Amino acid sequence: MISVRKLCKSHGDVAVLVDVTADVARGETIAIVGPSGGGKSTLLRCLNYLETFDAGEIAIADVVLRPNMPSGGLALQQLRTRVGMVFQQWNLFPHLTVAQNITLAPRIVRGVAPAVADAKAQELLARVGLEQRAGAYPHQLSGGQQQRVAIARALAQEPDVILFDEPTSALDPEMTDEVMGVIRDLATGGMTMLVVTHEMAFAEGIASRVWVIDKGTIAEDGPPAKVIDDPQSAVAREYFRRRKAR
Ligand SMILES: Nc1ncnc2c1ncn2[C@@H]1O[C@H](COP(=O)(O)OP(=O)(O)OP(=O)(O)O)[C@@H](O)[C@H]1O
Ligand SMILES: [Mg+2]
Fold first, then answer.
1. Which residue ranges form the domains of the chain, and what is each CATH number?
2. CB distance 37 to ligand 1 below 6 Å
């Protein structure tokens, strides 16, 4: 589903991603961890082409990405519908209801009929446990509820891949559990996901693989039991030692 080959990106003199090569099969859930500034967000942003890169190639959901692609081109249009993204801040449109937030892109980008888009939104809201809140505005919801709407909105595009960048780091523990529960259900349902998270329970219990990203490279890549309990790199040992000490 995802193939990254020798991906390189710099900001000025700072090398942010250095020759990153990785593959993700359909249905895998990858937990991405590692020290601040290591390049986790930048990698997700390159996979969704929110940023271009300097060298290398990415194939994701049958879309091939190379440096400096035209923003209006067909490849990036396809990418937008096939790859969903959920950020730390939920970024819902404040002036639209929950249902309108979810149906906006399907109606405008894919031309789905309003009644069909509404029915689908209702189904997705049930899936994230918010079937009663279609008419609410974002400010009337808790942070965890807003984040679940953001997930429903990503799902409305029927993506092949969803990228999550610290989806629960702005939430308190109870809301973290409800959002992680939704992500766990998606993993069980076979969605392909990359999840940047510092939630060790997620990395240990839900992810099929863990990547430790440090200094622009994937320092460690393997099943949770191996990477977390028997890390080989100094950076992974230190990272997990600190997390477990909390
Ligand atoms: N727009 C930018 N201009 C200059 N440098 C940037 C920019 N965006 C990111 N960087 C740098 O790239 C490096 C990687 O940043 P990135 O946000 O990908 O790290 P991260 O692993 O997501 O960190 P965190 O865990 O704190 O979210 C950092 O050194 C950061 O300062
Ligand atoms: Mg980040």
1. 25-50+82-244 (3.40.50.300)
2. yes
